[in-house]
Specification:
Largest sheet: 2 strands, antiparallel
Number of helices: 12
Oligomer: single chain
Radius of gyration: 22 Å
Structural class: mainly alpha
């Protein structure tokens, strides 16, 4: 029965992917936007149900916190897409696709590693030695929370479809070069946002166990915790790419929307952190205030960047249109 359900679910995802791909770029981006909102909202509001469906083992507050942070990042990516995907500047649309290609490509690698990593590395669990006469058998080491087969079948299919859709419409687009980038304070804030977000993403991706140990007191993170930390790093790197190219957008509003999405992201992460401090004992016992204070400082700087002056502030331009080259 379960195999039949997985087959129907996979077929539903593939058919939806093909239908979205059969129209135009804006249609594809709209479907991507809706999917991001639905999945992001599920991770934020009911992470225990989503994780319970995909994992085996006893969940704790750290798992739920990381799941909610993942949902916040997905929702804020949807906010950026909603604000800019109908811009008349086709370059802004194409770069939205490029940023999502980067994040989904790394996400696919992280997902494959979480499913097949130990197997590809040749790690095989050895049976504990047989106890001698009169000795108690050695305890089986705890694995923590692990992903089940549902995670592999559902997420591999969804991520591959998302990556292929973004790649196809990126390659079919013509506008890659961008426009003149002025040395305005707004553009400088976008470049700083690129650098800070890129560094945060690389650190989360490469040193997830260290960050979990420092910020959350997780001395031996399980597969699920490490995976979510790496996923967060992948999505931050994709966001950094968008901030890097945003100074070349034609319209000022498109540039400010990139920073607005970052503000929403940081405020959402701050609220999730405060919720974790109040709700989960294993999180409150550590020093998560460092993360909360960091979110607050970066949010304040990003808000200042959103309101920073720009040389084209007095220009009147038509921003919205089809832009479906």
């Amino acid at each position: 029965m379960m195999e039949y359900f997985e087959l129907v679910r996979t077929a539903f995802i593939v058919v939806g992917f093909l239908l979205a791909m059969s129209r135009d770029r804006v249609t594809w981006m709209t479907v991507d936007l809706i999917a991001s909102v639905v999945m992001g909202a599920a991770w934020v509001f009911i992470p225990q149900i989503v994780l319970g469906f995909h994992t085996e083992g006893e969940l704790n507050g750290i798992h739920l916190f990381l799941g909610r942070v993942f949902g916040v990042v997905m929702l804020c990516g949807a906010v950026k897409m909603y604000l800019n995907y109908r811009s008349h500047d086709s370059y802004a649309q194409v770069m939205l696709l490029a940023s999502r290609i980067v994040s989904t490509s790394i996400l696919l690698i992280v997902l494959a590693h979480s499913v097949y990593g130990d197997r590809l590395a040749g790690k095989v669990e050895e049976a504990p030695p047989k106890p001698k006469e009169g000795e108690k058998p050695a305890p089986t080491p705890a694995k923590g929370v692990v992903f089940n087969d549902q995670w592999r079948s559902l997420n591999m299919t969804a991520v591959i479809c998302a990556l292929l859709g973004n790649v196809v419409w990126f390659l079919k687009s013509r506008h890659y070069g961008g426009h003149t980038s002025l040395d305005s304070l707004l553009n400088i804030h976008l470049r700083v946002d690129f650098f800070v977000t890129l560094i945060m993403g690389v650190v989360w991706l490469a040193y997830t166990p260290t960050i979990l140990g420092f910020k959350m007191g997780v001395t031996a993170p399980d597969t699920v915790q490490v995976h979510f930390g790496q996923v967060l790093g992948a999505m931050l790197i994709g966001d950094a790419i968008l901030s890097a190219v945003a100074p070349g957008f034609l319209f000022e509003e498109d540039k400010r929307n990139v920073l607005l999405g970052r503000v929403v992201n940081l405020i959402g992460a701050l609220l999730i952190t405060l919720h974790a401090i109040i709700t989960y004992d294993e999180y409150a016992e550590q020093h998560p205030w460092v993360m909360g204070i960091g979110f607050a400082i970066i949010s304040a700087v990003t808000v200042h960047g959103y309101h920073a002056p720009h040389e084209t502030s007095t220009y009147k331009t038509r921003r919205y249109g089809k832009g479906n080259d």
